[in-house]
Amino acid sequence: MNKMNLTVSYRNKFTRTNEDDGSVYNVYCYLVSKDNNPLVIAQLEQDIKDAGHNVIIDEESGCVLFKSTRPIPRGCQITRTSKGKWIADTAKWDEIAALDKLYPNLGFGAAMVKELIADIMKKDRNQPVDTHDEQTEQNQGENQSTDEAGDAGIDPFKL
Fold it and tell me: Which of 47, 63, 100, 137 pairs as cysteine with 31 (C-beta 3.0–4.6 A)?
């Protein structure tokens, strides 16, 4: 296992206060998908224990809870560094940003982000997606498709 990656989905965020200096910081919680390789999940659990923390299992989903003080952009996996730390793998978003910067007139950023997020939403099995929408069915004659314009303004880094 050369590169260890895990797919995660956002769960919630809470605020903590540092006991030493009184500073306030955010802690972001993510559910580790059960579709990941069980050996990689076991490695994450071992790394959490090695860091002196307890492994927390979400009661509703049964998934391991991953906590981080840094937000992980939607669609990014977490990857293990050589020192045993788990960080966001933002390579896809970096590539999109670089293309958008090179060719600003072509609109690579918005189109690629829309496509990437649509693909992620299909693969995200931790959150059920309701595909039946009565309001959309009633408006089919008026608007040909709600998907074409609906996701154009999505900010992938906003949680």
Answer: 63
76 and 11 in a single domain? The answer is yes
User: Are 28 and 83 contained in the same domain?
Assistant: yes
| Integer Cα distance of 118 and 99 in angstroms | 19
Whether residue 149 lies inside any domain: the answer is: no
- 105 φ/ψ angles, rounded to the nearest 5 degrees: -75, -20
Report the length, in residues, of the chain. Answer: 159
67 in the same domain as 19: yes
What span, in angstroms and rounded, lies between the C-alpha atoms of 56 and 62?
10
Query: Could you report the average pLDDT of every consecutive run of 10 residues in the chain (159 residues)?
Result: 82 89 90 92 93 91 91 84 86 77 73 64 47 43 42 49
- DSSP assignment of 119-148 equals HHHHH--SS------HHHHHTTTT-S-SHH
Helix axes 108-123, 91-102, angle to 10 degrees: 160
Domain span including residue 120: 92-138
Residue 94: the pLDDT is 78
pLDDT of residue 71: 85
